Amino acid sequence: MMVVGSPEQSETALLAGEVACPHCSAPLRAHGHASTRTVRGLGQERLTVRPRRARCGGCGRTQVLLPAALALRRADTVEVIGTALAAKAAGNGYRTIAAGMGRPVSTVRRWFRRAPEKHVHWLHEQAVKHAFSLNPEILADLKQWPSLLGRSLNILAGAALAFNRLARAELPPWTVIGYFTRGNLLSPPLRT
Ligand SMILES: [Zn+2]
């Protein structure tokens, strides 16, 4: 599994032989598609995606290229889950957030259980790493945040803006954040 920015860009890069295998760095080649998935966006929005599958010309391993707007093993987009986490960081409870987003309370509670303190520390590390390489000033201008989650999301948002500026792209910020966090805005059930 590899996380890619936008499906269109990665398709072009893949066909041009510009996507490197994460194991051996040889170019990946198009190799069919993974099964179609429908995920929920904000409100009633639905996204149907058919992630590209690629095979390495060097080591022969296959990879699924997961679009960065999607979270690993989640039925909701990064934007949806991120919006819920940002609301939590702003001090809202999960019942209020679930009602506001039109999601079951149990779903929102499950998300929050997948963002324990250890994972928030990991998010903060990713945030600082990307902000530092894209524009260190993001880290200098930070206001005080009552929680590390709020601080992490704020840095990630600043880094996403800096990424779009440098890449002359207009990717949705949560998509860039999905890329920064490699699909793991929430912690996976098992970290390998
Ligand atoms: Zn390889």
Quote the distance from N terminus to C terminus.
Answer: 13 Å
> Biggest β-sheet: count, sense, barrel?
4 strands, mixed
- In terms of DSSP E residues, the strand content is 5-15%
List bound small molecules. zinc ion
Strand count: 6
| Category by helix and strand content | alpha+beta
Secondary structure tally, helices: 8
How many discrete structural domains? 2
Helix proportion: 40-55%
Gyration radius from CA atoms, angstroms: 17 Å
Contiguous runs where pLDDT drops below 50 for at least 5 residues? none
Strand order of the largest sheet: 1-6-5-2
Structure at a glance:
The protein has 192 residues and is an alpha+beta fold.
Q: How is this structure best described in words?
A:
With 192 residues, this protein is of the alpha+beta class. The protein folds into 2 domains: 2-67, no CATH class; 78-180, no CATH class. Helix content is 46%, strand content 15%. It contains 8 helices and 6 strands, in the order E-H-E-E-E-E-E-H-H-H-H-H-H-H. The chain has helices at residues 7-15, 78-89, 94-101, 105-113, 117-134, 137-140, 148-167, 173-180, and strands at residues 2-4, 28-33, 37-40, 46-49, 52-56, 62-67. The strands form 2 sheets. It has a 4-stranded mixed β-sheet. A two-stranded antiparallel ribbon has the order 3-4. Helix 2 (78-89) crosses helix 7 and helix 3 (94-101) packs across helix 4. The mean pLDDT is 91. It binds zinc ion. Residues 21, 23-24, 26, 56, 58-59, 61 line the site of zinc ion.
